[in-house]
Amino acid sequence: MRIDENRLEDANKKSIARHNEHFDFLAGIMTNDGHDINAILQKLQDFQVAIPSWALGAGGTRFGRFGFQGEPANLEQKIDDIGILHKLTQTAGAVSLHIPWDVPSDYDAIKDLAKSHDIVFDAVNSNTFQDQKNAKESYKYGSLSNTNSAVREQAIAHNVDVIKIGDRLGSKSLTVWLADGTNFPGQGNFQKALSHTEDSLKEIYKTLPNDWKLFIEYKPYEPNFYSTVIQDWGTSFMLANACGDKAYTLVDLGHHLPNTNIEQIVSTLMLKGKLGGFHFNDSKYGDDDLTVGSVKPYALFLIFNALVYGMENNPQNPYPAWMIDASHNVKDPLEDLIQSLEAIQEAYAKALLVDQKALTLAQQNHDVVKCQEILQDAYRTDVRPLLEKARLNRNGAINPIETYRTLKIRENLIKERGADSVASGL
Ligand code: AOS
Ligand code: ZN
Ligand code: ZN
Fold it and tell me: Domain 5-417 classified CATH 3.20.20.150?
């Protein structure tokens, strides 16, 4: 299913007067404040976030999974779903594939389909946290860190395969997230696990094409509850340095112990040129994978402030690969993703409004109050008309959620795919 251009235009016509009024008001204030509106709009329009192939169906917890009707049953339908998201929001122009959940059967057909939706293939994700059918070795006690070399070799070979699959699609990066760790004190040897992981990553790194990057994701706990081998950014950073120039740390917003200062981690990594990938989500307690911006929008803004500073001042850091890493237990996954994309753009726009010159001056003068005023002045600005304008400029929807509902997209998907279709892979 595809969104009909005419119906999208009709929906926009209904909102255009209200949009113009709000935009003109905001544009007036911003121009008076010395902002270059067109430059900010261009940045918003260029900002594209990858949607992971596993986020299009309903997620679940270990207590159960409640399906959502009309879920995409195969990779083609998943890409169609991202096409819908991208058409409406104009900010979801990439897909991040999970292997082996979403191995293409016909590469040319998948590439053509993605292209027809204006979607590119971003980082590919390997999976050594589940045992695959017919696999010789089990990952029950770890993959790249396993004490058994046969298991490590199988996990390395899988990652090498994932690179090959990604290469055929035009991907340029591999994300490695390991579930490796222990559940109980004494179960494993920390030093051996880390050494094995480093050696295994180096083997994978050796096979990385020259124009590729390796992203190493960290996470403090879950699924293991006593220790995780790559538990924090420092461990990831150390491993990335051990691998080489093409290896980077990946920050997932949900992968920190409560109250960790993520904006400071981002700043440190960008200063060192090692922030490669970024997973967006939100949480209250742990790796909750909730809708971006739904719980801690100010924290997200502060993180974006660090990201914007890094993008503007750290040429040593590559442009990060952005991805939404969320799961959907009670919402329509597409509506949830639209909300996440909106929250990301909102935080980005607000960070672009921070008066960096004034902030630097206030910092030099140790004017602590002024520093806070500058940040909060940007944060308190209602930037939604800017986001609407950015979408309109790219022929997207002024109000994506409203349009999604007016065009009855979920109803149409259910008609097309059936009420009990279940997303493949999970
Ligand atoms: C797991 O907690 C991580 O966030 C991963 O990035 C991701 O969700 C997983 O690799 C899915 O394949
Ligand atoms: Zn993640
Ligand atoms: Zn996670």
Answer: yes
